[in-house]
Amino acid sequence: MYDISTRKRALALVAQGRSLNSVSRETGISRAAIRSWQDRLEPRTRMAPPDPGPPADECAYAYLLGLYLGDGCISGHPRGGYFLRVACADAWPGLIEQCREAIGKVRPGVSVYVVRKQGCVAVTSYSRSWPVLFPQHGRGKKHERPVALEPWQQAIVDAHPWEFIRGLIHSDGCRITNWTTRMVGGERKRYEYPRYFFSNKSDDIRKLFTDTLDTVGVEWTTLARGSDPFNISIARKASVALMDAHVGPKY
After folding, report:
1. Across the chain, what does the average pLDDT equal?
2. Of the residues 16, 34, 81, 169, which has the fewest C-beta atoms closer than 10 A?
3. In the predicted model, is pLDDT for residue 153 greater than 80?
């Protein structure tokens, strides 16, 4: 359906770091078609990713792993190599900067840049090694396939649990203020209290989050959205205090 020049133009846009969605909107070509062209190129051009060795900064890696599991993805470059992208809302400039810093600490020397989109940015970096550093990479959405940590990743999370929790909260979590009313002396009074939420469709990713909360002594509960238990709530005063000390709100 498409001539060679059309295919080359679409793949060139992807090679610039553009998402399949944005290229599809600009060219009118379906995401499925663009992906199939990439797949045809990859077997001929892509080499096995080199082993980069352990992350240069394990603390930064634990944080970046949390961001990746929440809002990150890895996609192939048509000529070889891979892009790591982490979506960050414009509302949190501090988070964007922390994400950039973490990538630079994990892989010193790689370029890190921001691709702006409506209401958010994609913090992006190119390296042939990203699939090795994030072996959870795979086809399809994370909640539609198994997600498990490799032993070496679990060892890093065990050593830096709060950084991992902070990355997950900064990607798919938030700190909010809830309120309720109580009758006191015949008068209804309003009370406010802080609460943390983490929401993710993947059962495996939610379990990674709650297992790590258990190791640091944070109590949590599951709140169902309809029949789906997508939300993890942290509301007990002592646990919120721990989260405030080590995580805090996004900024």
Report:
1. 88
2. 16
3. yes
Specify which of 10-24, 32-46, 167-181 reaches the highest per-range mean pLDDT.
Answer: 167-181
**Own/partner pairs, 186-195, CB within 8 angstroms, 24+ separation:** 193/235, 193/237, 193/240, 194/240, 194/244, 195/233, 195/234, 195/235, 195/240
Is the pLDDT at 188 greater than 90, yes or no? no
pLDDT digits (tens, 9 = 90+) for 100-147: 999 999 999 999 999 988 889 999 999 989 999 999 988 888 988 899
Cβ–Cβ contacts within 10 Å for residue 118, how many? 6
Q: In whole angstroms, what is the distance from residue 35 CA to residue 7 CA?
A: 11
CATH topology (fold) of 162-246: Endonuclease I-creI (3.10.28)
Can you read off the two tokens belonging to residue 217? 């002594």
pLDDT for 108 equals 93
Residue that is written with structure tokens 């938030």 in the block: 174
CA distance linking residue 85 with residue 72, whole number of Å: 6
Specify the pairing of strand 221-225 against strand 228-234. antiparallel
The residues, ordered by sequence, that sit 6+ positions from 28 with a Cβ below 8 Å of its Cβ are none
Name the amino acid, one letter, at 72. Answer: G
Please report, for residues 46, 54, 106, 135, the alpha-carbon distance to residue 51 in angstroms, rounded to integers and kept in the order given. Answer: 15, 9, 14, 12
DSSP state of 186: T
Q: What is the domain partition of the chain in residue ranges?
A: 1-44, 162-246
